[in-house]
Amino acid sequence: MKIVLVGYMGSGKTTIGKLLANKLKISFLDLDEVIEQGLEDSISNIFNGKGEIFFRKKEHEYLIDVLSKKEKLILSTGGGTPCYSGNMETMLNLADHVFYLKVSIPGLVKRLLLEKEHRPLIKNIDNGDLPEFIGKHLFERNNFYLKANHIIECDDKDPESLVAEIQELLT
């Protein structure tokens, strides 16, 4: 079984992915980590040094590679992954389940304010401007996210109950 988690940064893809992988006793991969290991560099260095077009091309290649090789896995993607290079269609074709972890704008703001320093995309955005920034991004990305097989509403739910909700949809 191949499961892919998509959603905006801070939506819980890595947290939920690791918990779910543990419950199902299958491997968990974070696509950004796979790319960093493969290219032996950090995502921010790749973006800054070689540009977004290079990064998106590599992201697409690694996505196909991971989903073509592994028999059973849970894959957490970057927030922008579904929006480029036909990646959402690739995920829908090569994975058994694609879950969109949907969090409201206020929910994302609350989560991301806590980890802003570790998020290069939003690190330099004023706290007051964060809701508008996230809202604009979500508007641009939502059409891709909504193509997922399953949409999981994540606001006000703890990770364990979200994992249980996903497990129910797998049976």
From TrEMBL:
Q: Does the keyword NADP apply?
A: no
What does the entry comment about cofactor binding? Answer: Binds 1 Mg(2+) ion per subunit.
Amino-acid biosynthesis recorded as keyword: yes
- SUPFAM superfamilies registered for this protein in UniProt: P-loop containing nucleoside triphosphate hydrolases
List the keywords (alphabetical). Amino-acid biosynthesis, Aromatic amino acid biosynthesis, ATP-binding, Cytoplasm, Kinase, Magnesium, Metal-binding, Nucleotide-binding, Transferase
InterPro entries (alphabetical): P-loop_NTPase, Shikimate/glucono_kinase, Shikimate_kinase/TSH1
For the ligand (ATP), the binding residues are G10, S11, G12, K13, T14, T15, R119
The record's subcellular locations are:
Cytoplasm
Which cofactors, by name?
Answer: Mg(2+)
Q: Which PANTHER family match?
A: SHIKIMATE KINASE, SHIKIMATE KINASE 1, CHLOROPLASTIC
Tell me the subunit arrangement: Monomer.
Q: What is this protein called?
A: Shikimate kinase
Q: Which organism is it from?
A: Arenibacter algicola
